[in-house]
Design brief:
The protein has 201 residues and is α+β, with helices and mostly antiparallel strands. It is 63% helix and 9% strand. The chain has four helices and four strands; from the N terminus they run αββββααα. It has helices at 6-39, 83-112, 122-154, 171-200; strands at 47-51, 61-63, 66-70, 73-78. A hairpin with a 2-residue loop joins strand 3 (66-70) and strand 4. The protein is elongated and about 70 Å long.
Length: 201
């Protein structure tokens, strides 16, 4: 009889517990709390890190309750933000949190397949492609949303000429998305081999 190790008995449960803890933390601190800040019960997000067009100091550059503090990498601060400002400030963080929650939820379902001892199932192939898409959105869509909302925050004010709200792809996320898509292809090959093997039995 093949001996059973401690990890082989509890691995899926430990993995699901860790993923569940990650879901809880991300859902609370990166999604729910910022949303409650927008709607009122919690203090709203009122700052955002931005990049200035030059490295010179920008002392007391303010307009309509919006101010810049810093040099090349500065902090855009909004005094007493209204509902529209709160939405613009929270949108990128909430979008990032939602995508991470989606990824962790899919990983939770994949971890559940470890209980059967076979992860090479067609459903996991689709899940890996979904994770790859979500990671791609993290690297492309979230920075685009950050750029759009920053432009909206400073648009029509003297701060617009000082803030460089440019779109930058996150290369690490794009590379990770490609690698996960390649892993999904390997899982698809494994699922086909498994189906062929079962057909021979």
């Amino acid at each position: 009889m093949t001996p059973t190790t401690l990890w082989s008995r509890y691995d899926s449960h430990v993995l699901e517990l860790l993923i569940g803890l990650g879901l809880l933390l991300v859902g609370l601190f990166q999604a729910l709390f910022p949303i409650l800040g927008v709607t009122g019960p919690f203090p709203p997000i009122d700052t955002r890190d931005v990049t200035l067009r030059s490295t010179s100091q920008v002392p007391h550059l303010a307009s309509g309750g919006t101010a810049l503090r810093g040099t090349h990498h500065a902090e855009l601060a909004v005094d007493d933000p209204g509902l529209g400002d709160r939405l613009l400030l929270a949108a990128p963080e909430v979008a990032r949190a939602v995508l991470i929650v989606v990824i962790l939820s899919i990983l939770m379902r994949m971890a559940a397949t470890l209980r059967t001892g076979d992860v090479f199932v067609p459903a996991n192939v689709r899940r890996l492609f979904a994770i790859s898409t979500a990671v791609l959105l993290l690297g492309a869509a979230v920075p685009a949303l950050d750029m759009v909302t920053t432009n909206a925050l400073v648009g029509g004010t003297p701060l617009a000429s000082a803030v460089e709200a440019s779109f930058m792809l996150r290369a690490s996320d794009i590379l990770l998305a490609v690698l996960i898509a390649a892993l999904a292809g390997a899982f698809a090959h494994g699922a086909r081999l498994r189906a062929d093997t079962e057909g021979l039995v």
